[in-house]
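Posting for a labmate who doesn't have an account.
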Amino acid sequence: MSFKFNPFTGTFDIDTQGGSGGPNFPNPSEIELEAAETISALKVIYSDDGRAKLYNPSIQLKPIGLSLNGASTGQTVVVKMFGEVQDSFFGFDVGEILFSNNFGSLTNLAPTSGYYCEIGSVVSENKVKINILDIIEL
């Protein structure tokens, strides 16, 4: 049995076609999508027509995860949808709640306009836990 990401609902549907034509799921917490624009690693991503785009708090669509690799337009980007990500780039304090800024980067500063959406939290030095909550209009 396999699952196929539904970008319209932000959930997974059972793939009744045996996985053909759907995204590759080597890890159930990750999804591979085509990049709709140039994306760097460790950026907050949302899905637009099944393609990955940089998230920002001014759009109403819910983010789906954090990019694990960089990709140019048309290339494959791996998106971590939930769970832990460790990287020496992270410089946040343990316990902080994380959000996205206007450029898709993780920040500990909550948005003051647009849409509020917690992306995750810092669980240890250089490790964040992705746990995306529902968006709230500000």
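Reply:
Got it, the structure tokens are right above this. The two ends are 40 Å apart (CA to CA).
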